[in-house]
Design goal:
The structure is a single chain. This protein is of the alpha/beta class and 439 residues long. It folds into two domains: 3-105 and 234-429, Rossmann fold; 109-232, Rossmann fold, CATH 3.40.50.1100. It has 17 helices and eleven strands. Strands 1-10-9-8-11-3-2 form a seven-stranded mixed β-sheet, with helices on both faces. The chain has a four-stranded parallel β-sheet with strand order 6-5-4-7, sandwiched between helices. α7 (161-173) links the parallel β4 (153-158) and β5. The radius of gyration is 21 Å and the shape is globular. Bound molecules: pyridoxal-5'-phosphate. Residues 107-109, 161, 268-275, 330-331, 333, 375, 377-378, 415-416 line the site of pyridoxal-5'-phosphate.
Length: 439
C-alpha cells in the first residue's frame, strides 16, 4: 500500500472497519451544466415507447401504464423509532422511496438493467426492419421478433440483482441470456434464473471476477451484448430517469423542493451506477437544493475509497486489506465503476459507511415500525438522516441548511427485497432491542 494512504486518517478508519462520514471536499453547489453525452430524456423516451409492451408482458405494471415505478411514502413510525433509539430529534419529514418493491425484478436494477436490455432489443429489431420509432412496440412479442432475439445473446456478471433483472427481461423478449454470478450470490436467485431458461455460471471469486469472466465470454461470442456493470452508460441512464418521475411524486406529498425546503437523499452504493445515476438525475432536477449521500458497507467502501484518494476505479478495497464480505450482497463491490466516481466529484455531498450489525438493526427497526421487509443492502440509507445531523454540522452550516431543517424532506432510497423468498427474509430479521444506529 502507498505510504500516503497508510497515514491518511480516512483510510485508517476504513481499514479499522469503523463507521464514518466523509464529506466531499470537491462538492460544488453550482457545478455548471452536465455532460451532454448522458441524455436522460432519451432514456425516458425509450422507456415510454416500450410501455405498451411492458404493460402487456408484466401486468403488475399496467396500473402505471407500463412504466416500472415505485411508490414514495412517508414513514412517521420509523421516524419516531429512530429518534427514540438515538435520543436525537429528527426534524422535517422522513420518506421512503420504495425501489425494494419495483415491479418485474424487485430491486433498483429494474431501472438500469431493464433499460439496457430494451435498448439492445430496440436496436436489434430496428436493424432487422421489424421496428420503427412509430411502431406499436407490442409487436416485439410476435413470433418473428422472438425468433430474431433468440439468435442474439446477453451476458452479464452480477452479485445477483442485476442478473435477475437482465435475466427476467431478456428471457421475456426471447434472448439467450448468460449470467455469471459471484460466490456471494444467493441460491434462490440462481434457481429462479435457471427456471426461466437462463444459463447461470458460478464463480468462486467475487463480483469483479464474475464481471471479468462475463466480459471475456461476450468478446468471444458473435451477436452478443455484454451488460457491463462497471462501465455502462445505458444502465446509468436507466437509473437517472427515476429523478424526473420523483418530482410529481414529491408534489403529490406537498413537497416543493427549494432553498428553504431542502431535499436530502440517502442511496445505497455498490459499484455506483444506481446511486450515481439517480443522484445525477436529481441534481439536474433540483440543483443545489438536493443533497445526495451514498451509503456503503464498512467492508466494501469502494466509492468512498476511490473518491477520497482520487484514484477512483484504480483502487480496490482489497488494496487496503478489506475482504469485501458483507451481508449486503447487493453492495459487495470492491472496485467502483470506471466513470461514476469522477462524474460524481462535484455533485455528491458525501458518503458514509455502516457495519453489517447496523444494517440488521435498521432492517429490524423498519420492519417493527412500518411492517416493511427487505434485504440488508436496501436499508443502508436509513442510517443517513440521523447520522447527518450528528456528524454533518459543518456541512449543514456551510450549505446554509441549519435554519431550514424543520422544512427538510429526508428521502431514504430502499433498493431491493420484494422477490426474496419468505424464509430468507425471515432470516434477515433479528428482533429484540436495538442500540442506536450509528452509535
Ligand atoms: C445493485 C444494488 C445497489 C447498488 O447499485 P450499484 O449500481 O451497484 O451501486 C443497491 N442496492 C441493491 C439491493 C442492489 O441490488
Amino acid at each position: 500500500m502507498m505510504e500516503s494512504l497508510v497515514n491518511d486518517p480516512v483510510v485508517r478508519r476504513l481499514r479499522a472497519l469503523q463507521e464514518q462520514w466523509w464529506f466531499n471536499p470537491r462538492y460544488l453547489s453550482d457545478p455548471g451544466s452536465a455532460s451532454d453525452q448522458l441524455d436522460i430524456d432519451q432514456a425516458a423516451a425509450r422507456l415510454q415507447r416500450f410501455a405498451p409492451y411492458i404493460a402487456a408482458e408484466f401486468p403488475a405494471t399496467a396500473a402505471d401504464g407500463g412504466l416500472i415505478e415505485s411508490p414514495l411514502r412517508e414513514i412517521p413510525a420509523a421516524q419516531a423509532a429512530l429518534q427514540r433509539l438515538a435520543g436525537l430529534a429528527l426534524p422535517g419529514r422522513l420518506l421512503l422511496k420504495c425501489d425494494h418493491a419495483l415491479a418485474v425484478s424487485g430491486s433498483v436494477k429494474a431501472r438500469g438493467g431493464i433499460h439496457e436490455v430494451l435498448k439492445v432489443a430496440e436496436q436489434v429489431a430496428t436493424n432487422a426492419g421489424l421496428l420503427t420509432p412509430d411502431s406499436d412496440y407490442r409487436t416485439l412479442a410476435s413470433p418473428a421478433a422472438r425468433t430474431l432475439f433468440a439468435r442474439h445473446s446477453l451476458v452479464v456478471g452480477s452479485t445477483g440483482n442485476l442478473g435477475l433483472s437482465i435475466g427476467i427481461m431478456g428471457a421475456a423478449l426471447g434472448f439467450r441470456v448468460v449470467v455469471h454470478m459471484s460466490s456471494d450470490a444467493r441460491e434462490w436467485k440462481k434457481s429462479r434464473l435457471r427456471a426461466l431458461g437462463v444459463t447461470v455460471v458460478e464463480h468462486p471469486g467475487d463480483y469483479s471476477a464474475a464481471v471479468a469472466e462475463g466480459r471475456a465470454e461476450a468478446l468471444a461470442t458473435a451477436r452478443c451484448h455484454f451488460v457491463d456493470d462497471e462501465n455502462s452508460r445505458d444502465l446509468f441512464l436507466g437509473y437517472a430517469v427515476a429523478a424526473q418521475r420523483l418530482r410529481p411524486q414529491l408534489a403529490a406529498q406537498g413537497i416543493e423542493v427549494s432553498a428553504e425546503r431542502p431535499l436530502l437523499v440517502y442511496l445505497p452504493c455498490g459499484v455506483g451506477g444506481a446511486p450515481g445515476g439517480i443522484a445525477f438525475g436529481l441534481k439536474q432536477q433540483f440543483g443545489p437544493h438536493v443533497h445526495c449521500f451514498f451509503a456503503e458497507p464498512t467492508q466494501s467502501p469502494c466509492m468512498l475509497l476511490g473518491m477520497h484518494t482520487g484514484l477512483f476505479q484504480q483502487i480496490a478495497v482489497q488494496d487496503i486489506g478489506l475482504d469485501n464480505r458483507t451481508c449486503a450482497d447487493g453492495l459487495a463491490c470492491g472496485r467502483s465503476s470506471s466513470f461514476v466516481g469522477k462524474l460524481m466529484q462535484p455533485l455528491l455531498s458525501g458518503i458514509y459507511t455502516l457495519s453489517d450489525d447496523s444494517l440488521y438493526r435498521l432492517l429490524a427497526l423498519l420492519r417493527d415500525s412500518e411492517g416493511v421487509a427487505m434485504e440488508p443492502s436496501a436499508v443502508a440509507g436509513l442510517a443517513g438522516p440521523l447520522g447527518l445531523l450528528a456528524q454533518g454540522q459543518r456541512y449543514l452550516e456551510d450549505n446554509g441548511l441549519v435554519p431550514y431543517l424543520a422544512n427538510a424532506a429526508h428521502l431514504v432510497w430502499t433498493t431491493g427485497g420484494s422477490m426474496v423468498p419468505a424464509d430468507e427474509l425471515e432470516s434477515y430479521y433479528q428482533p429484540g432491542p436495538h442500540p442506536p444506529p450509528g452509535a
